[in-house]
Amino acid sequence: MALNTVIYEKFRNAFEQKCCQLIIEAYQTSVTEKIIQLDWNENDISSEIHRHIKENPLRLKWKVSTNVEADIPKDIQKEKGFSDKFPRIDFRLTSFISTYEFEYFFEAKNLKQNDSALKRRYIDTGIDNFVSKKYENGSLIGYLLEGLTNETVIGINSLLEKDKRNTETLIIKSSELIKPYYESTHSDIGILKHFIFDFTSLTN
Fold first, then answer.
1. Rounded to an integer, what is the distance from CA 102 to the centroid of its chain?
2. In this predicted model, what pLDDT tens digit does every residue of 104-144 receive, in sequence order?
3. Helix 42-55 vs helix 5-33: angle between axes, to the nearest 10 degrees?
4. Cis link prior to 73 (omega < 30° from 0)?
5. Residue 83 falls within a domain, yes or no?
6. Least crowded by CB within 10 Å, which of 51, 85, 164, 170?
7. Residues forming a β-bridge with 203
8. Which domain does 27 fall in, by range?
9. Cβ neighbours of 185 (radius 10 Å)
């Protein structure tokens, strides 16, 4: 029997909350273990966080599967190099409820307070990939490797305002899972969540 729309949305929202909890707890564990280095690239950090997601007993309890660098195929012509056109995203979490497969995605970007190029990249290949629906049904993660979260977000917002995207700036919100947590609002997709994972307390 197919799930009706209300029940489907209830399951989908509950699954999203579980995914956010799994990745936030993985981040918190990684900070405690102090294995991540500040000179690591995004994929290095994502691989370490992914390990902690897999080791979390809640993942098994909730029957959530996870993998990194997931391919999300689109309907494109299959010719030489076609696989390079697939959008790749850092985290894909999935679960089955009844006959439905629920998916949730996280895209991660390195950030530094005084690095405008990284903040620009966060917008161009992070925010904009969700806004264009290249990536769907997910959240953005910023791996903060230098500076302060608040100042870094101010920098991202300044770039958005420079692009005349004042209505799309990151706004701080309250969350029981992690502080701070941000949301941006976009006309095509609605609300996009942003989690800033601060690694600045770690030493090289």
1. 16
2. 999 999 999 999 999 999 999 999 999 998 888 899 999 99
3. 110
4. no
5. no
6. 164
7. none
8. 5-71+88-198
9. 13
